[in-house]
Amino acid sequence: MLLSPIAVQAQEAAPAPASPSGCELHIRPTANFQAMNTTMLSGFGVVGAIADAATHADKVKSVKEQMADILTPDVQFDELKKIEAAKLLGFPADTALIVEKPFDAPDTIKGNPELKEKYKALEADEKAGKRLTTSTAACYAELQVSMVFYQKAALYGTRVFTFYWLRDYRDGKPKPKAYKGMVQHNASAFPAEHIEQLEASKAALIDAYRNDFSKWVELKYKQAS
């Protein structure tokens, strides 16, 4: 389940550093990590898929934990900053990058009626085109990392998918232009199965996450602009 628009959490925006352009790019990392292992059993319809999921249930949990440990909010934000995410999206060089608190993970929302009600109200705000921060900057956009998804498939190998969503208010209209979609890169060294593989595994996951954004800009943002 994607974190947007259902998993939307209201919060105060951090003060933006002053810049001549006054532009702000608000980046919201994700806490939504999903994983799936599929083998040749999955080719045998529903029965095979159920058997396959049961076989890999424990390993999937371990993979999700590794993803959360490696791709912390700070790491996600720093990696997008390193590759100059704002520049890739056509923002001025002095654009203020502001990190926002991740949305609650789907598992957290599922068992909390109060959060469910809060998200219903916030989903209505999102559909109405309202900003998800308190910023009033004229040059403004929100970049959300909605999900990071790991898949190990018999036919395709190991892949890391990242779902990005940009809500762009730079044209001055009350409702944003929306760009969203998922892209993937191979990450054969992830996940680690032994201690000595941890560093290589970490590097593979981070590289896939970083490369996913550059690919997303080319395939999902520029082609739709």
Short description:
The chain has 225 residues and is α/β, with parallel strands linked by helices. The chain has helices at residues 45-55, 57-70, 73-82, 85-88, 106-110, 113-127, 198-222; strands spanning 24-28, 33-38, 96-99, 140-153, 157-168, 177-186. Helix 3 (73-82) packs across helix 7.
Write out key terms for the chains shown.
alpha/beta, six-stranded mixed beta sheet, globular, disordered N terminus
Characterise the protein shown here.
It is built from seven helices and six strands. With 225 residues, the protein is α/β, with parallel strands linked by helices. It has one domain. Strands 1, 2, 3, 4, 5 and 6 form a six-stranded mixed sheet that branches. Strand 4 (140-153) and strand 5 (157-168) form a beta hairpin. Helix 3 packs across helix 7 (198-222). It starts with 23 loop residues before the first strand and ends with a helix. Mean pLDDT is 83; it is low at 1-14 and 38-57.
Strand content: 15-25%
Number of separate structural domains: 1
Q: How many beta-strand segments?
A: 6
The N- and C-terminal alpha carbons lie at a distance of 26 Å
Query: Helix amount, in percent?
Result: 25-40%
Order of helices and strands: EEHHHHEHHEEEH
Please, what is the oligomeric state?
Answer: single chain
Structural class: alpha/beta
Q: Ranges with pLDDT <50 over ≥5 residues?
A: 1-14, 38-57
| Biggest pleated-sheet summary | 6 strands, mixed
* Mean pLDDT level: 83
How many individual helices?
7
| Shape, per Cα inertia axes | globular
Give Rg in angstroms.
18 Å
